Amino acid sequence: RRIGLSSAGTPQTVDFGTKITGQVGGQDVALLHVRTGDDDDMIGEDFTVARVKRRMLQQSYVGAIYTRRDERSARPGFTDPRHTAGVDVRLATSRFLGSQNLETSGWMMYASRPGGSSGNASFGGTVNYPNDRWSARLDASEVQAHFDPSVGFVTRRNYRRYTPSVVFSPRPSNHPYIRRFTFGGSADVQTDLRNQMLTRGFEINAIEVQTHAGDTMAFQINPTREHLDEPFTLTRGITLPVGAEYDFTRYQFRAQTGNRRKLAVNGRYEIGDFYSGTRSEKVAGLTVRARPGLIVYLTGEWNDITLAEGHFKTKLYRVVGETQFSPFVTLVNNVQYDTQSAVLGWQSRFRWILTPGNDLYLVYTHNWLDTELGPGNQTSFNRYATLDKRLASKILYTYRF
Q1: The dihedral of CA 71, 74, 80, 86: what is its sign?
Q2: Tally of CB atoms within 10 A around 143
Q3: 323: number of Cβ within 10 Å
Q4: How large is the average pLDDT for residues 364-384?
């Protein structure tokens, strides 16, 4: 998802790309190489990703990954090639205590950094007990201050994260309507590398009810504590200061009908404190299965946020239409608009499966800026001005040997 985009997210020309996946003996192997071209002030780059995974026992494996990003330029001050390497392992069994599932996994990655060799790693591990009635999980990870994989994403650096969870899901015996109750909770605790708390959040699932028809209803309580280690911009003109600490609790009710219905609805209502003030959130969705091969998804989200620093509202609307002309030809159209970015976006994706494993894709993307809400709040005769539009194609060919 970093390939073909600048650091600011601007699309960049892709000259060519190739991907190979398959199996060699007991190993799963994959190789990806993409070259982007010079585009205005953006320099073309080579991207390489290689992955190998060795299957062990019945449900376990050990694997490794390597990525490379290299600017194809001899200009003064060009960036040296950046490399990232990592290993991971998973050990799992379905015979724990006779018939229970248990799995553990761990991973570690190291990214090169010009002029430095310390603080460039990230690592973590998981213990998971995914079973009926009782399930539990614990994840722990650390991302050091200078870790930058270049090809991948890092949401935060210089921190540790711990996410334990426990869930109890009893099933009433022979109940005419209710299939399962769910109770449980999870935590998300983040600290800096000196173990000073940055974020502490809990999700307490007070009750969730699922019916035999697939309908669900749930009530959740979310206490949160935040310490800002850098300024946090919520919207234009409202930035929370570095060093500020907030304790707030939010309450959420959600419900949805079974997705198998011709008309399926879902909704969420959340209210409570939010940083220095309050926030109410409403989400509503409708799925229409008009006929076999034609599905329409409608989603709306509304937020009303009142803080000591100011008040603002956000709205988001999305329409997705999936049309399956045959088992081999599909067309998906996705249209989205939100008042925060003031961008109306449309993506149309056509897929034709020539033969199984050999696919043709055509993707058209068009973005418009709402000039009444965008930067400068300039009203024009043409309210929606084109930001960018792009047509891309991809051919997937599979050779089996």
Answers
A1: positive
A2: 21
A3: 15
A4: 75
